[in-house]
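Side project, low priority. Logging it here so it doesn't get lost.
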Amino acid sequence: MYFQVSSIMNIINTQAFVLKKKNSGETSFIVHLFSIDHGKIIVIAKGARKNKSKFHGFFEQFSMLNIHINYKEGRPYHFLNSAEFIEPFWQFKNNPIAVLYASIITEVIYKTQKYYSDSSIYKLLKAVFYEMNDNKISPQYLHWYFFIHFFKINGFGYNLEFCNHCHKKLTNGKISTKNGYLLCSNCSQNINSDLFFNNEILNIFSFMLKNHPKKLLNIKCSEKIRKMTDKLIWNTLKIHFDNLMHLNSIKTLNKMI
């Protein structure tokens, strides 16, 4: 982990992913980053839009950087001093489907992560993006993997073994739209939910929780199961985060696929 503090200049060195950027003034960028040490941070990259700027080309979405910033606790933004690539992820940036699934992940991080450190989510994101860049595993599977672990880290992971109402072993049923609980076919008969799951989906989720993302090469499933799983993942996000009811990245993906 990169972390150094100068008591005089208050210069902080950390790793960070680029979430989004926007223009500032005539030549600068305001860049939203997700860092390993400080969670979500906002930096101003002065003059970054100039062709000869030392920052030129660094702030494409998804890039992982090593940055030095002039950091001040409590300030809404900080000034960027220097940046260098750790990994630009050029390979998956050339894959439109990978970009769409990665966009869902970064949009969720942008809307849910606060201005404090959560290194477990950072490390999860790093592992998923490296596998996505390797281009051997379906980006759809990798985005499932991210969210299955994201739910667990945030304290609302699925109970994949037993019904949350009667506690009998699960094989199929529905997810409650009130709390995200998995209910067996008997207990879910009278609930208003179209979020169905079956034993195949339960096995996929269980496999993902127990294994490194490289192991996802072993997963094979039908288009029907893929669609069902996307629906379950995305609706679980809506259940637990009010601000994720309408994700632009999911709308774009649905239009393209």
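Brief comment: The chain has two domains: 4-88, 91-256.
Revisit when time allows.
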